[in-house]
Amino acid sequence: MNPSEIVIWFIGAGLGTLLLGLLLKWVDRKVTARVQWRVGPPWYQPMVDIIKLMGKETLMPVTARGTGFLLAPVIALATMAVAATILWRSLWDPSSPFLGDLIVVIYLLAIPALMTMLGASASGSPHASVGASREMKLLLSYELPMFLAILVAVARSGWTFQLGGLVTAQAQTGPVVFSISGALAMLIAIICMQAKLGLVPFDVAEAECEIMSGVYVEYSGPALANWLMTRAMMLAVMPLLLVEVFWGGLYRQAWWGFLSFLGRYVLLVVLVVLIRNTNPRLRIDQTMKVFWFGLTPVAIVALVLA
Predict the structure, then answer these.
(1) Stated pTM of the model
(2) Model confidence pLDDT, tens digit, residues 11-59
(3) Whole-angstrom distance, CA of residue 249 vs CA of residue 240
């Protein structure tokens, strides 16, 4: 791609993913409301929340380190835009991505958690410090089983670390999820996705009723809006990654391919919302045990079977 195409894809994929993520946040809130026998917000409510925060003032805590506190949400949002661009481009044209783009996406998806820890630590708040500590432990817990699960798909696709190569291989041999090892890896990836999104039962870094939103407690105005947009884009990007890696991506050869992709994508989003609404929050020690002593051994078994 030439530089102009890169800019167009970056802006288009970034804005499109943001709008999609805000729409999915509404789906999350609407389904949650219906589960709790409430009406729920209108479809445009997440967008209104962002616009409202953009018009507010960002209040800096007296104890905060300004540079890290303000840069963290900006960097997190930018990395999500880059990750979204790579994923949508590889989905639309599997032959276009660069070598090792899967590894790049994995690293990019870890940066928002690192920026969350940086921003929380820079705020100087004791509640945010507790949240940052929990976020670090959570990151160290789920990254290994998540990587092993993705490695299962890589192994079954001829050890290619190209997203386009994964999609092409599955178009020829069938989706990875339709094998025993692939099904185990997909299950592990879904649970890890729940933790990466910071949703119940793994929302220990926020835990509103314990540490008052934890890592985000001192944020307000546009800075808080950046975090909300980052979280919304993450909600849009993570199911997309799982569909590409484990479930065959987009079948462009026939009209039903788009409907099939949309159905698989929506199914994962709804599954995330249902898990969030049907489970209690785990303690951080319980969360670490789930990933280290529960999911990691299963992921190793799945990799051996692959």
Answers:
(1) 0.93
(2) 888 999 999 999 999 999 999 898 889 998 999 999 999 999 999 998 8
(3) 8
Host domain of residue 197: 3-305
Residue 169 burial by Cβ neighbours in a 10 Å radius (0-12, 13-18, 19+): buried
What's the pLDDT tens digit per position in 96-105? 767 778 999 9
Contact in structure between 273 and 31 (CB atoms under 8 Å): yes
- Rounded to the nearest 10 degrees, how much is the dihedral formed by the CA atoms of 118, 146, 151, 94? -70
CA-CA-CA-CA dihedral for 77, 82, 85, 88, to nearest 10: -80
* Number of neighbours of residue 50 by Cβ within 10 angstroms: 19
Q: How many domains does the chain have?
A: 1
31, 41 Cβ separation under 8 angstroms: no
Alpha-carbon span 198 to 176, nearest angstrom: 26
Whole-number Å distance between alpha carbons of 122 and 145: 29
Going by C-beta distance under 8 Å and a sequence separation of 6 or more, which residues neighbour residue 249?
91, 94, 166, 167, 170, 171, 243, 261
CA angle 100, 299, 200 (to 5 degrees): 95
What are the CA-CA distances from residue 131 to residues 136, 204, 278 (Å)?
A: 9, 7, 23
Quote the tokens at residue 72.
């963290």
- Residue 201 neighbours by CB under 8 Å, 6+ apart: 194, 275, 279, 280, 281, 282, 287
**What is the rounded CA–CA span in Å between residue 140 and residue 25?**
26
Tell me how far apart the alpha carbons of residues 86 and 164 are, in angstroms, rounded to a whole number. Answer: 10
